[in-house]
Amino acid sequence: MNFKNKRILSLFLSLALVFGIFLTPMGTYAEETEVVELTIVHTNDVHSRVEGDGDKLIGYGRLATKIKELKAENPNVLILDAGDTIHGLPIATISKGESIIDLMNKIGYDAMVPGNHDFNYGYDRLLELKDMAEFPILAANVVKKDGTRDLGEYVIKEVDGLKIGIFGLATPETKEKSNPKNTEGVNFEDPVKIAEEMVKKLQAENVNMIIALVHLGIDEESDVKSSDIAEVEGIDLIVDGHSHSKLDEGEVIGDTLLVQTGNYLENIGVVEIEFNNGELVNKTAKLIEFEEAKELEEDKDVKNTIEELEEKNKEITSVVVGKTKTKLVGEREVVRTGESNLGNLATDAMLKITGADVALTNGGGIRASIEPGEITMGDVIEVFPFGNYIVVKEVKGINIKNALEHGAKSYPEVAGGFPHVAGMTYKIDTSKEVGNRIVDIMVNGEPIDLDKTYTLATNDFMAAGGDGYEMLADG
């Protein structure tokens, strides 16, 4: 071959190589990126407000419709509840929570953690409800005295080729914020310690994401806070409840996103997660508020079920038991920071019924207001849903003072233990240190005698040491 022909052949081969580069699929040189999007819908502290209205409650009917809309856009949807759900209104309490579990089954929840009020029917009843649920009820830190667990530690959900690990943590405050008798035989272990253990277990399962589903709260009254759990390395998302906190876009703590919706299903929580080749690369939170949700048409199946439950319960709830010319105030912000006419009515009635020297009840036991007009049994159950009864005890004056000191320790912050009283008066001196703030205690017009024995009427929850009133349990 002569030199000229060699040059032509060389040029031809070079051109073929260049064209080959451009015609070869790019996937040969760069691996394709696989993107998976996951939507997490979350609720907390619904307190059985499953029926929506035209004012502020979204309700389960609209929630179910919204979930269907989200699944139509992206089938990768998980639905989580952060507790205090199956107790509160007559629609829940008459069936001891079964009605709410049935509705959650219809909606398609994937997991929940029990809040302190979900123990209100007793531990054995919670286990019965767990068996009725078509989703796991998780509480890794609830452990029996023999070291075994009845409630699940965690669950792994497989979504579009990804493994999502979800573990549950219940508040240790349950021991005092539900009747102590409701949790006899079980311990609530340190949430932070258990969170660390759960992260290790889930990492060993090679999950792509770790979610802590917790009922701990972020307010000052909360003991161990969900923000403490956020300090545990390896948790991507915390779905929280308990403090009724409204976090519009969540709160980022380190690498962890913490979310909570407020309460009563006034908002629907939505978290959007993006994975790139199995690695979590983005997470954002938002709330769907009532103004947006009110235009949703209620899911017919869920709506019909709620209406049937309400109709069935009317035999009990419609019975008229009294009348009032004025509003009896039971709003959370009022009864947990001071006395109200409804609290006074309750404690006055306790005195009249028992003939005790003094009466004491906790603001957290008053759950709603009563509007002027007829008072029905349904109103009574809504205001006092815990099925408490009156207990009369003999207590020393010093224990009454200690009880008032304990109840007012968080004042002026909202606290469920705030003391409503009858037969006595007291003042709170906020300039003094906690434990020595109660002054001018008067019993039936006379200064209290700390060494004298008085008869005290209270509810069985506080008499057993509930809300931290251990001095009453001791007598």
Overall shape: it is globular
Mean pLDDT across the residues is 92
Structural class of the helices, strands and pairings?
alpha/beta
Structural domain count? 2
CATH homologous superfamily grouping of the largest domain: Metallo-dependent phosphatases
Determine the fraction of residues in helical runs and give it as a percent range.
Answer: 25-40%
Main sheet strand line-up: 5-6-8-9-11-10
Number of helices: 16
Output the radius of gyration.
Answer: 28 Å
CATH class of the largest domain: Alpha Beta
How does this structure look, described?
This protein is of the alpha/beta class and about 475 residues long. It has two domains: about 35-310, 4-Layer Sandwich (Purple Acid Phosphatase, chain A, domain 2), CATH 3.60.21; about 320-475, Alpha-Beta Complex (5'-nucleotidase,  domain 2). Helix content is about 30%, strand content about 25%. It is built from 16 helices and 22 strands. The protein has helices at about 5-25, 60-75, 90-95, 100-105, 125-130, 175, 190-205, 225-230, 290-295, 300-315, 330-335, 340-355, 375-385, 395-405, 460-465, 470-475; strands spanning about 35-45, 75-80, 110, 140-145, 155-160, 160-170, 185-190, 210-215, 235-240, 250-255, 255-260, 265-275, 280-290, 320-325, 360, 375, 390-395, 420, 425-430, 440-445, 445, 455-460. Strands 5-6-8-9-11-10 form a six-stranded mixed sheet. It has a five-stranded mixed sheet with strand order 3-2-1-12-13. α2 (about 60-75) packs parallel to α4 (about 100-105) and α4 (about 100-105) packs antiparallel against α10 (about 300-315). The termini are far apart.
